User: Fold these one by one.
Assistant:
Number 1:
Amino acid sequence: MREMVLLCLFLASIFLNNTGVTGQADDAGFVSIDCGLPGNSSYKDTSSTLTYSSDDPFIDTGTNHNISAAYITSILSPHYLNVRSFDNGTRNCYTIKSLVTGGKYLLRATFMYGNYDGLNKGVIFDLHVGVNYWKTVNISDPEEITISEVIFVAPVDYIQVCLVNTGLGTPFISSLDLRPMKKSLYPHVNSSQSLVLAHRLNAGPTDTTIIRYPDDPHDRMWKPWSNVPYWAEITTSQHIQNTQNDPFEAPSAVLQTAVTPVNATPANTSALKFFWLADPFDKDPDYLATFHFSELQTLTNGQKREFNITINDAMFSPKPYSPYPLYADAIYGRYKPFPGMRQYNVTLKASSNSTLSPILNAVEVFSVLPVSDIPTDSVDVSAINAIKSKYQIKRDWYGDPCAPKTYAWDGLNCSYAVSGSPRITDLSLASSGLTGEITNAFGNLKALQTLNLSHNNLAGSIPDVFSELPLLALLDLTGNKLSGSIPSGLLKKSNDGLLTLRVGDNADLCNDGTECNQTKKMSNSSKIAIAIIFLIIVVLIIAAASIFIISKFTGSTCVVETSIQLEYPQFTYRDLEQITDTFKQEIGRGGFGIVYIGRLVDGTQVAVKMQHRRSTQEVNNFIVEAQLLTKIHHRNLVSLIGYCNDENCLALVLEYMSEGSLQDHLKGKPGSSCLTWKERIRIALDSAKGLEYLHKGCNPRIIHQDIKPHNILLNERLEAKIADFGVSKAFSSNDDTHVSMKDPVGTYGYIDPEYYVKRKLSEKSDVYSFGVVLLQIITGQPAIIQGTGPESEPVNVSQWVRQRLSRGNIDSVVDARMQGDYDINSVWNAANVALECTEMSGVHRPTMADVIVRLQECIELEAAVGRNRNGVSRNGVNKKE
Ligand SMILES: *[C@@H]1O[C@H](CO)[C@@H](O)[C@H](O)[C@H]1NC(C)=O
Ligand SMILES: *[C@@H]1O[C@H](CO)[C@@H](O)[C@H](O)[C@H]1NC(C)=O
Ligand SMILES: *[C@@H]1O[C@H](CO)[C@@H](O)[C@H](O)[C@H]1NC(C)=O
Ligand SMILES: *[C@@H]1O[C@H](CO)[C@@H](O)[C@H](O)[C@H]1NC(C)=O
Ligand SMILES: *[C@@H]1O[C@H](CO)[C@@H](O)[C@H](O)[C@H]1NC(C)=O
Ligand SMILES: *[C@@H]1O[C@H](CO)[C@@H](O)[C@H](O)[C@H]1NC(C)=O
Ligand SMILES: *[C@@H]1O[C@H](CO)[C@@H](O)[C@H](O)[C@H]1NC(C)=O
Ligand SMILES: *[C@@H]1O[C@H](CO)[C@@H](O)[C@H](O)[C@H]1NC(C)=O
Ligand SMILES: *[C@@H]1O[C@H](CO)[C@@H](O)[C@H](O)[C@H]1NC(C)=O
Ligand SMILES: CC(=O)N[C@H]1CO[C@H](CO)[C@@H](O)[C@@H]1O
């Protein structure tokens, strides 16, 4: 698998056009950083004449150290005298700005340990260029200078150079250089592949200094390679020219020296042999080998220098090759070795006609590095960085937020498209000590689906920017100090069921837009404007009257108690008798007792749940439920109106749900209408939201433990609310996610099998039960379906659906009572979510937040089709994911 190119000289262009020769180059665009140098200092490096400055402006982590005096010598370049090291964090990154997007750059990092930490220990760490792996650096000798170089195309207008701690010691760095490159140089480098330098050697120099800028205008570092036994040096003082289209522009100073085998005679030309070894960390080597040549001797008539180049005995040059006198030329190509090959033997062997031995002026070997990861969308990156700096977030948030995936920032989730940049989809900054106002930068995270800012100290009003986030499905602002009203855009999305909005436990926040008056919505500038108008009024009209107006205006603050602080009315047995008209109409019955319908004095209908008072355990269960109900408030949870707890009665007075339970509707109880698909999916979404609130919106979080259609109640608008918290468990956030229990509780058919076996309870157990309910909503079947044959076993609805769907036919499982009036894609999506929820292992089940997002998609699919279903054939039949 070799790709071969012979650099041809275009003689005409050589003689007619010398402008391609880059004798002079300025150092415009060079960035030369001495890592570990104290802030604001810089110096001129005598060997390169370049100015090196402190790395302070490029990074805000790490600590500076001087190397140990034992390793300081008079010839040591000043970049190596100090280092910056990174004790903290997985990824520490330098950010160099003002690159040209799509421009080609050479980036070089150097490392000399010099026992800076006094530990005298080797270290191995990874380097990343942008979001892509670059190289693994292995440093064992304190005196050794390691140079890593990569040539790449900048995907965005900045580059991050990251040192990644892989657990094998503290990463450190001595210097960092960035050099812009002409596009025509190193044509193998493009946006999908970079070149990582393995070797760059200048053959045959008489002194041992590295050639770099200004001798090489591109400031590559050419290491000397001479004094090899069996090799003789050849040099010239004449300038070596580059052709106009030279893809390497090897500098004259490098090409002016070469090596050739010793003792070669016209009768006995011998071969030049050398080899390189694979980098032990390079798992899949793929090389670009470049051999630089120029004929330095003046050949007489009859003299000929011609040779073949082979690598591991395979022909590398396409044909026998002769170098051009005093012009730069190169033989280069890809070399993809056989698996396991670690040594690459290069042989330059004179052909039979040649009277002179082969020569070699310089060699470069690169690994070809595929560019596999793309940096996160740049608008997302600036937004999240603005958020990070606004709230001084102290997390391991360095480098690209999403890429590479393994190092994505903690607290956020990203979507990774096959092509295109990753986007930030979920951000959780719950309990992160955020203070101040909510920054508008959140509004620039346009792909955001969930945002959790709960339990911080955020103050001020809720900005309108959230309603501009098209995909936002969950916004949790619980437990802050927010004030003012909720922007109408947000309220609308929430009311339309597109957004789960949590704003509980914010003392000064109006829970509902209508309760807040204009004053609060006003921006500071309009307040000032109004204040000025009033001042004018003060001047113009009677002082007393105007004072009255101002005080009235500014005095109307929005004081809305959050329901948490409300006291619940306590009823007596006599009150309950009155409310229920002496327990006249029973609307439900269970192991706990009986539920009666009632009516408060103001006419509100209520459900009165009378508890048998039997055992201490039952009383305790009652108290658990009552206590939970006083703490949880969500439109999809049945709310508490009051209670009775005295020697005569134990009862809860609850919101009345006129349409009964989901179970009544699924069972087709007389008087219950058959639900349409649209109604069903809405009920599923409502229930999911209620459950999600229990899991994530409550502190302590709550596991319901008995999710089933009987406990999902419907009001007159068929809005679903979860009820019956008698066996629910609240866990303080310090507890482990899994909580050991003695006996599994719940209802047969809905109990999470994993919980049943392992007796370890988590939110995922509710997700399982919810999945069963969702399957019932789709199929209209009971949770346990009796076998049809005489011998057949009863099966769970999830097995029943799985079996049928494996034959690819969704229509065979959907509740026939819907008479085919549903969008097939919407049902497929819902069935897929339900099956994921009923996976045997909890870790494979989605969270309720995921379920909400997926169910919203189902609603959108149904809505899109519902608009023009009349007569239009259904699309996507038998679509299977
Ligand atoms: C660098 O210089 C700037 C202004 O000249 C100064 O504000 C800053 O504090 C200095 N930083 C350090 C680390 O000395
Ligand atoms: C590293 O982390 C520790 C503990 O969090 C902190 O005390 C120290 O200052 C950090 N060091 C640097 C260089 O940031
Ligand atoms: C390094 O050495 C210089 C003097 O040579 C001194 O000024 C500087 O403070 C030292 N830096 C550190 C981090 O020890
Ligand atoms: C790192 O380099 C040292 C010295 O060259 C070598 O002995 C060691 O095996 C290398 N480590 C790895 C993991 O390759
Ligand atoms: C980059 O170059 C390689 C071969 O040299 C080629 O296969 C690939 O398509 C190029 N990619 C782009 C984006 O041009
Ligand atoms: C050519 O030279 C090499 C090394 O200098 C020697 O080993 C070899 O025998 C010579 N061959 C002939 C044919 O003289
Ligand atoms: C390279 O040369 C060495 C001896 O110089 C030999 O042992 C090795 O097998 C050669 N490798 C290949 C792949 O030809
Ligand atoms: C050099 O390559 C040519 C063409 O591939 C071949 O004919 C010739 O034998 C080779 N010469 C040597 C010395 O290997
Ligand atoms: C050797 O040179 C002769 C005359 O210059 C030419 O005809 C012949 O093809 C050459 N042979 C090789 C192997 O290059
Ligand atoms: C809480 C409060 O003051 N509400 C008032 C807000 O303004 C409307 C009229 O615009 C009144 O009807 C509310 O009573």
Number 2:
Amino acid sequence: METRAMNSGGGNGADAVARLEDVRARIDEAARSSGRDPDDITLIAVSKTFPPEAIEPVLAAGQRHFGENRVQEAREKWPALKEKYPDVTLHLIGPLQTNKVKYAVRLFDVIHTVDRPKLAAELAREMEKRGRRLPVFVQVNTGEEPQKAGVLPREADAFIEQCRNEYGLDVIGLMCIPPVDEEPALHFALLEKIARRHGLKNLSMGMSHDFETAIAFGATHVRVGSAIFGPRSPRKPAG
Ligand SMILES: *Cc1c(COP(=O)(O)O)cnc(C)c1O
């Protein structure tokens, strides 16, 4: 198995648990100030780059939704953790290559990054084969950034319908990652608007620095990494 230098977790497990409680309190507060029920918001703890030793205390504290952005890294970390905590829901929040679909469908419980017909078709085929019909989000590249994954906003309507009707995927919502240098609220509002016209109830949006704004704009799934696990050290690009 490949070894990779992983982050130690910006301190010990107690730090992560204290930060987790703080994030939960901030989610509750943000929900209430928008007149929303905090129970309608799922906190996904993004554990990418952190080793199992950093994740375990957060599991022990009761957190059950986790996000990873690389299939290979998740395959190294999560089978053992899932065996110990079978009620964990694991979310794939990073780009998915078609040649990794078979591993993704086996290990993950929700896929947030469906963004092209070839991937949708491959997911549909693999889910059928495994008898595992996972809920999925369609990722929208709201900032139209060339380097970023996601379907373009003007192509989103047709793609969402294609995922549902042609591939029979269980599309439950939309996901976006706003450009770092822009006001995220505009992107959250755009995502919400597209979701609404398709009757999609779930919005995967909001990260450590903007999850409260995302909640004000209707986020149902916030993906929070560094605010829980501490800062990540940079790593090499995906090989
Ligand atoms: C890493 C990552 C996050 C979490 O980012 P933080 O800023 O650490 O909260 C959320 N979503 C995606 C898609 C990510 O890759």
